[in-house]
Amino acid sequence: MLTETPRLRLRQWTEKDKEPFAQLNSDPEVMRFLRPVMTRAESDAAIEAQMALMEKGEPAFWAAARKSDDHLIGCIGVKHVSFEASFTPTYEIGWRLAREHWGLGYATEGAKAALGLAFANWEISEIHSFTVLANVKSQAVMTRVGMSRVEGGDFDHSALAKDDPLLRHVLYRIKKRDN
Ligand SMILES: CC(C)(COP(=O)(O)OP(=O)(O)OC[C@H]1O[C@@H](n2cnc3c(N)ncnc32)[C@H](O)[C@@H]1OP(=O)(O)O)[C@@H](O)C(=O)NCCC(=O)NCCS
Fold first, then answer.
1. Ligand 1 atom nearest to 97, measured from its CA
2. Count: domains in the chain
3. Residue 94: CB within 6 Å of ligand 1?
4. Which of 18, 48, 60, 146 is disulfide-compatible with 53, CB 3.0–4.6 A?
């Protein structure tokens, strides 16, 4: 286990996380601002990619589990940004929870812990976060964890087609000393 908050545990992924993670990745509402819903195989591959990062000692999107019963509620974590943009190379913080766990403060609680973990354990001086303009819930988490919107930082995601409605992104940042 990496860290605990009052209600959550951020930890390595296990085989038993695959079913609940596949369920949330197949929910169109959860994936509305991310990408098409995932198949079970794609979801399992996403877990395995994060497990591999952790085994290499790198930060990752960690499994976020409810402390009371260790049930997976989603992923929260920090990882190296895998595409090129004006603000890369950098690390991003991200979160994705099953819909039944929205509106409870879990993302904010877990993300604060994830920032602390990342700054304490890796040579990371600043962490970015980004999302599509319309994803106001995610931007609210960014603000609640102390991130600030980067002025003039809006960008078109290079992995998306120019006519993709999810193309335009907002950019937030937090520096180590601010955390
Ligand atoms: C983005 C996402 C994680 C935000 O979830 P969320 O539940 O809105 O965020 P939090 O967990 O921080 O919860 C905050 C809400 O819980 C409420 N809340 C209830 N109990 C609370 C408690 N004990 N402590 C703190 N907040 C609490 C807050 O008032 C707030 O409600 P509001 O949205 O009505 O203002 C979620 O919408 C999601 O998984 N979306 C799909 C994936 C996605 O888009 N990820 C981001 C990609 S960039």
1. 39
2. 1
3. yes
4. 60
Q: Is 155 in the pocket of ligand 1 (CB under 6 A)?
A: no
Cα(79)–Cα(127) distance, integer angstroms: 9
Q: Is 97 in the pocket of ligand 1 (CB under 6 A)?
A: yes
DSSP-derived secondary structure letter, 125: S
Asked if residue 96 has its Cβ within 6 Å of ligand 1, the reply is yes
Distance CA 76, CA 81 (A): 15
pLDDT, tens only, 18-58: 999 999 999 999 999 997 999 999 999 999 999 999 999 99
Determine the structural domain holding residue 20 and report its residue range. 3-178
Task: Judge whether residue 1 has pLDDT over 90.
Answer: no
Task: Using the atom order of ligand 1, give the atom closest to the CA of residue 132.
Answer: 48
| Domain containing residue 148: CATH number | 3.40.630.30
Average pLDDT over residues 69-93: 96
What does DSSP say about strands 8-11 and 3-4: parallel, antiparallel, or unpaired? antiparallel
Q: Phi and psi for 56 in degrees, rounded to 5?
A: -80, 0
Q: Whose CA is nearest to atom 13 of ligand 1?
A: 105
The confidence band for 178, taking pLDDT boundaries of 50, 70 and 90, is low
